[in-house]
Write a structure and sequence with these properties.
This protein has 18 helices and 16 strands. It is of the alpha/beta class. The strands form 3 sheets. Strands 8-9-11-12-13-14-15-16 form an 8-stranded mixed barrel, surrounded by 5 helices. A 5-stranded mixed β-sheet has the order 2-3-1-6-7, sandwiched between helices. Strands 4-5 form a two-stranded antiparallel ribbon. A hairpin with a 2-residue loop joins strand 2 and strand 3. Bound molecules: ligand C2E and magnesium ion (2 copies). Ligand C2E binds next to strand 9, helix 8, helix 9 and strand 13.
Length: 457
């Protein structure tokens, strides 16, 4: 019996050892999977988990939390000039120094590279975060000792708050990152809170600008078409070409997301030329194939109208695509018309002489006077969507729309209403004598094939 007991005890001991070994190995793996080996700080994975937990706690307790996204300034420069070993050492020192300023409940993580994230829970208010950010900045006011040198380095910080800036960890991190870019742009070594406007201006600008340059070559631009309907018989008379950008990461982007950037960078010129080409080619294909719409409308940006060779460009494209000039309608915004004089008016007249139609887009948003309109070689006005949208609620808008229609008629202009979504709007417009309508009531902007499928008989 004794030997038997001894055997059992031994086996048991072996088993125990095996279990603790395996446990230790698992712990090690966990540690490796959840920590950054260089600084031993939580990595992205663990940060995500902790942040999600923190968010749940905040939601339950109705408290705020803050995400500080920090990026070292000119770190790449140190890496490049002193070598990676020095860079690594600096990152370790930064991590250690940051750790000293953390409170027990805060999380400090390294995302990789020179990016660190601090999560602060149970905020009393924005001042709490501000003083934390200031404290962090102060940590950088004395040097780091790396390879017998004193290195000064700065840090740029962006801050997002739960719940106002995001509901999950991904969104909070993204917005803190966005705010960080603003700090970089404004001369580095400072901090900024996220605001919604930033999403378009700072972050998108940086990421979109470089990809916009390649969008054409990569074939990511698309032209969608939206039908224009004659109100008297509900038949399609034409389409408006509307650009889309099929961005590899963000999906299909509407012009609001990238047109301003395209204007500012001048990229609107090659992009605009390409759109015009596509639209004209599509139009002659449709006409040749028996889909006999009267008009293809294409938007021109201010920048394009200022281009010296606009008229020649249009001529070339019409010829190359075998598109007849009177099939083409170019839309110019009203605000542009108002600031224009001299040369651009001449360009418009030359286009008219070619036989191309000109339309004024977003009519009603600018301040065109009647007499001014009469001097322009324009055949159509498009009443801005904002007036159509409010037709039911604001009694004045009915009056404005009627007045614009009456004015257009007296000037012998064609009138199209934009943004028609409801039957009562189209009814009102028809009664007032508006000629055409365009809007979701009839169709969204769609790819060419879809337009044929829906509208060609
Ligand atoms: P826009 O020329 O006034 O075009 C009409 C806009 O209203 C389009 O937006 C269209 O999708 C939208 N829309 C049409 N019907 C409805 C409706 O019933 N309800 C609502 N809520 N919206 C409607 P999109 O395509 O986002 O284009 C926005 C603006 O971007 C255009 O306004 C135009 O100014 C500009 N744009 C679009 N494509 C081009 C282009 O190829 N070149 C240039 N230069 N500008 C373009
Ligand atoms: Mg338009
Ligand atoms: Mg418009």
């Amino acid at each position: 019996v004794n030997t038997r007991t001894a055997e059992l005890v031994a086996t048991n001991r072996d088993l125990q050892k095996e279990i603790t070994d395996r446990k230790r190995a698992e712990e090690n793996l966990k540690q490796l999977a959840h920590h950054d080996p260089l600084t031993n700080l939580p990595n992205r994975l663990l940060l995500d988990a902790r942040l999600e937990h923190a968010i749940s706690r905040s939601r339950r307790n109705h408290t705020q939390l803050a995400v500080l996204f920090m990026d070292l300034d000119q770190f790449k420069h140190i890496n490049d000039s002193l070598g990676h070993a020095a860079g690594d050492e600096l990152l370790r020192l930064v991590a250690r120094r940051l750790q000293t300023s953390m409170r027990a409940n805060d999380t400090l993580a390294r995302l990789g590279g020179d990016e660190f994230v601090i999560v602060i829970e149970q905020l009393q208010g924005k001042q709490d975060v501000e003083s934390m950010a200031e404290k962090v900045m102060e940590l950088f006011s004395w040097p780091f000792r790396v390879q017998q040198r004193d290195l000064f380095i700065g840090a740029s910080i962006g801050i997002s708050l739960y719940p106002q800036d995001g509901m999950d960890s991904e969104e909070l991190l993204m917005h803190a990152d966005t705010a960080m870019y603003l700090s970089k742009r404004e001369g580095r070594h400072n901090f900024h809170f996220y605001t919604q406007e930033l999403t378009v201006s700072a972050y998108e600008r940086m990421t979109l600008e470089s990809s916009l340059r390649q969008a054409l070559e990569r074939g990511e631009m698309r032209v969608y078409y939206q039908p224009q309907i004659r109100l008297s018989d509900s038949r399609i008379t034409g389409v408006e070409a509307l650009v889309r950008w099929d961005h590899p990461e963000f999906g299909l982007l509407s012009p609001a997301r990238f047109l301003k950037l395209a204007e500012e960078t001048g990229l609107i010129l090659p992009i605009g030329r390409w759109i015009l080409q596509q639209a004209c080619r599509q139009m002659s294909q449709w006409r040749a194939g028996g889909f006999s719409i009267e008009r293809m409308a294409v938007n021109l940006s201010t920048r394009q109208v200022h281009e010296e060779n606009l008229v020649e460009l249009v001529e070339d494209i019409l010829r190359d695509t075998a598109c007849q000039p009177n099939w083409l309608e170019l839309e110019i915004t009203e605000s542009f018309i108002m600031q224009e004089t001299g040369r651009s008016i001449q360009a418009m007249e030359r286009l008219r002489n070619l036989g191309v139609h000109l339309a004024i887009d977003d009519f009603g948003t600018g301040y065109s006077s009647l007499s001014y309109l009469k001097r322009l070689p324009v055949v159509k006005i498009k009443i801005d969507r904002s007036f159509i949208r409010d037709l039911s609620s604001a009694p004045n808008d009915g009056a404005i729309v009627s007045a614009v229609i009456a004015m257009g008629q007296s000037l012998n202009l064609e009138i199209t209403a934009e943004g028609v979504e409801e039957t009562f709007q189209s009814e009102f417009l028809r009664q007032q004598g508006c000629h055409q309508a365009q809007g979701f009531l009839y169709s969204q902007p769609l790819p060419a094939q879809q337009i044929e499928h829906d509208w060609a008989d």
